[in-house]
Each structure stands twice: as structure tokens, then as C-alpha cells.
Amino acid sequence: MLLILRDPTTVTLAKKVTELSGGPIQGVGPVAGMFVPRWRSTNQPLLQIQRVLEPEPGEEDGSAASNVAKVVRTVLVPRLRR
User: Which one, of 61, 45, 42, lies nearest residue 53 by Cα?
Assistant: First the structure.
């Protein structure tokens, strides 16, 4: 997975940390623990998106609720590709 950050403040900060550390920022060694909150804050929204996009068991029953869920997924999938 590649996380792309484009806001100027974060880019400037990441460049400064990279400069101070003398190389790429890596989540290993003594700083590994600092990356745990980033992992959690990334993992939680991904799980939420997965739940929205994944069909529910038995959703193929043709009910109004399953049709709404299909429409929501149809709308969200292209937006996530942007």
C-alpha cells in the first residue's frame, strides 16, 4: 500500500523528517511504535469502506434494502478510484 500525502504542510514536514533522519522514513526499529497510530487510523476507514462495498450475505433476495445497497456500491466504487 502506498499512502500519498499532498497537502503542503505534511509534505514539508515529511521532507524535513527525511532530511533529519538521513534517508527514507521507515516504520522499523526504535520508531516503529510511532507508526502504530498511523496504521490504526488507516486500517479503520479501510474496514468501514470494505463493509460498505461488500455484499451482505443473502443480499441477492431482490428486497428494497438489497437494491439500495447495490446502488450505493455502484456509486462509491468509481469515486474510490479517483
Answer: 45
